[in-house]
């Protein structure tokens, strides 16, 4: 019986030692991961607030102290901030009223106060106008309605057989465009102001991806041409940086990056896609 009791005691001691060793290893592992867990938690909190703040901007018109949604007319008396005329439709006049430091505009300090933001933000607003060029014809056989006169340069004469065309309203002016391809890819845009040259592209300037094109008194960059299957040549995407609003980036911070999208509403133009690139971090 004594040998049996001794055997149980040894097993108990060994089991206890094994438990202590495993517990120590587990604690060591958990402690090692604590900073990573804390960092993930911080990122989640920043991300949640970022979505709340940007959703407010894109779904609310905002209010001033008198209860008017035209807060951009008196930006120093804003009660709640919003840029929307309707769901995810941003008014250009409200966007223009944002200015990081100006005391006569809605500045970043006011933004922090009105939104109750615990984090810092930097927002980059970029408009991405899309030209619908889904109509097409065979090169050297232009339609009579609209009455298109083709360019006579060597670049056009060496282009693909199918020419796409369309129009865009910008700054109160309508601009007509032709789009041509080379080696199977659409890559060239010709532009005319409708009220000046109509559909006569004899001396029309041409543009490629990355070029700057003037529309409505503003310069846009030719961003890309649609080159996907049966839809090739049917769209041209432009871009223009409108505004940067917010704090300078802090390099040593954990930064959350988020893209939000809306439509930009402005006088003398159709609704245009708007991208808001948001950077957020703990202040």
Fill in the keyword field for this structure.
single chain, 283 residues, alpha+beta, 13-stranded mixed sheet, two-stranded antiparallel ribbon, 37% strand
Give the SSE layout.
Elements: H1 2-59, E1 63-64, E2 78-80, E3 84-86, E4 89-91, H2 92-96, H3 108-115, E5 119-127, E6 130-138, H4 154-157, E7 162-170, E8 173-182, E9 185-193, H5 194-197, E10 206-207, E11 212-215, E12 218-225, E13 235-246, E14 256-265, E15 272-282
Task: Please characterize this protein's 3D structure.
The chain is of the alpha+beta class and 283 residues long. It has a domain at 130-240. The chain is 28% helix and 37% strand. The strands form 2 sheets. Strands 3, 4, 5, 6, 7, 8, 9, 10, 11, 12, 13, 14 and 15 form a 13-stranded mixed beta sheet that branches. Strands 1-2 form a two-stranded antiparallel sheet. Strand 7 and strand 8 (173-182) form a beta hairpin. The chain is flat, with a radius of gyration of 30 Å.
SSE order, as H and E? HEEEEHHEEHEEEHEEEEEE
Largest sheet: 13 strands, mixed
What would the average pLDDT be, to the nearest integer? Answer: 90
**Total beta strand runs:** 15
Number of helices: 5
Q: Strand portion, in percent?
A: 35-45%
- Considering DSSP H and I runs of 4 or more, what fraction of the residues is helical? 25-40%
Enumerate the spans where pLDDT stays under 50 for 5 or more consecutive residues: none
Net shape: flat
Please report the distance between the alpha carbons of the first and last residues: 70 Å
Radius of gyration: 30 Å
**Structural class per helix/strand content?**
alpha+beta
